[in-house]
């Protein structure tokens, strides 16, 4: 069997490529496209030269893609137009959605008319995409072209990984009419477990009892506190707003591109000292602060609060952190940004296995 020729759009640091390799599907990524030069540099460092191209995806045409003869498309378009964290999200009207809309509404139909369209697609995006106008156009177009589609909302917690990163996925397979599409997103891969329900969304449904690993299994060895400690000035002003977790925790918040730059809803920080109660310690700090006690911040220092390292985030995203290469010119700030934009490799690998099941 010849490898399935694959093209990766919005390739970032190569999470979809890594997931395809991990899935065991016999496939080759022959081309990847991304606009970010630093993301392309990281991709090339990990997947070799000649695959990724720095390209404005909105300028691609069917004539550009047809010679690649790719039967599998992997896509992870910009999430900002649809994320609930962006109060100005405008869906299909957002300029950042334009390149994806171009691919779906122009390029894919042109390839279909030339009988050169892909046989399979996988799309990843933020939770919230399922209610967007972009999603409606995507599903309608795929249905009209003859694809069977399945939509899912999945989190790594379902797969034992202590990270709450709820994401929308669509998988599609071209087949003769009549095409089919799911009525609403599934919350588990068919035949593989049960729905997982995040109780923070105010539901009373029982969450599936999936054993989740402790965060400690994903942490670096050795002392990294000094380099990654949360600055005292940040703790003094904003410390109460952080999501603080212990090494024994079995959940972390979703890490975003603003990790270490923002406080709320950007990702969890680690309290290395498990012997202290977080709330009691912060109460003591605030009491000292109100009383103008000199050195009040020393109370918080005892918690040993730090950011998770890029290597630790790579492990939570199911990348092989020990083998992952960061080019020297890619700063720590950029590493966090690129990781916040990436995908969970394990979840996507499971979806690809399902997509290619006989």
From TrEMBL:
Keywords: Methyltransferase, Transferase. It comes from the Eukaryota. This is S-adenosyl-L-methionine-dependent methyltransferase.
